[in-house]
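Quick illustration, no need to memorize.
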Amino acid sequence: MVRVAFASLLFLLVGCDDAGPGLPRSLETEDQDFKQGQLFQKQGESRKALECYLKVIDARRGSAESHLEAGLIYLQHIKDPVEAIHHFRKYLELEPNSKQAPLVRQRIDLARRELFRTMPGRPSDEQTVRLGGQELIDRLQRENEDLK
């Protein structure tokens, strides 16, 4: 009887989080790979830090903080806005109401702008703002006529 009560109490305390078998989400930041990733980041070793965060993501479901860190590395250091957006969205999926959620949404917008800038045949944001929409169309039409 005591064992059953103890097991029930233990189950209630641990809960059934989506973090994976025996790995509560609240302990993600205590994971050795996560800590190693933070250490690598402090040392300026972004790629090694990313590898650590990706290990945590692979090992656990619900690894929001690792998704956030991976997204930041992809955006700021590797310059891969597509992967950054993916990880930021996963973070928001897992932590939609966190204090950091508005900042993560801003990072998604920034990554989208970066992606837009890298697309071939697209004018830069500065050029679009400077010339305005109709002025840009007029200029391109004139250039097209000159080329003919």
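DSSP finds eight helices and no strands in the chain.
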